[in-house]
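Morning F.,

Quick status update on the modeling queue. The single chain you submitted on Monday has been processed. Sequence for confirmation:
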Amino acid sequence: MLTIIKTITAFILFNALFLANASANSQLEKAYQLLESGKSEAALDIAQGVLRTNPKDPDARFLKGFVLAEKGQTTDSIDIFRSLTRDYPNNPEPWNNLASLYAKQEKYHQARDALISAINTHPSYATAYKNLGNIYSKMAVIAYNRALDVNQNEKKKPVDVQLALISRFSNSAGESASSISTQPLAAVTQLTKSLPPVIEEKSIFSYEEEKNQVLAVLYGWSQAWSSQKPADYLIYYSPNFQTPGGMPRSIWEKRRHERLTKPRFIKVMIERPEVTFINDSTARLIFLQDYHSSAFRDKNKKTLMMQKVNGNWRIFRETIGG
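Structure tokens below.
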């Protein structure tokens, strides 16, 4: 008899929980409809109502954080998205929105780190790539103006870094590697090409600024690889690149072209990059590379040796291992 009572009680609790979740989902869908109609206050009221019943509901927390961000309540919104990154570290949306809010506060290094976390959860997450490109563009302009101490007329214009916010908690599944725009990171490359040689002088060498440029190249390189665009990919290699076994550069480039274009898809994930400067114009970059294509998957520690070529960091040697 006791077993029957326990079974009935568990069944009742299960159904109550199911109905509560269904009700919360229905309310949140209504909230999103209100949000799309410009009625953000009404949407926020619904989200807060759901949270009174279930304070841990991720969708309601995310919606509340989004509305608060739109209302300019940045600090409260940051607290919400921070808690979501702790509870759901493998979801890119909270990381992306956290980065957007950091950028609004001009905390560009924190914004960059949050976007890298978003990309590492989903290497084909297009919104984070676009936002990261804007962040690196802004940081490059700041580095340029600080390093040269130029007068107001010579300074480069600031880059707009109003990063895109995501309104829904789980909306990244439909973004594919082919949809990633290369324009922002291409803008970084174009910008660094315009930096004068004086940026390499020891008296103004800045570890943090040069590290940002090295990382911009790393993520631009991996993005070009994931996008399966050989011309964009090969531009990241120095004219002095040491090809495997000393093969002619033309043959190596032809093989790389074939390997980039043959798979149906390619995704390259970068984890834990570490930059060490040998001198002002040589850097060692060590990271974990997770390569995934339609035919093959592998994860290895990789080392890129990089050098300055006409003011740009370029790869002159790459090896598997430390």
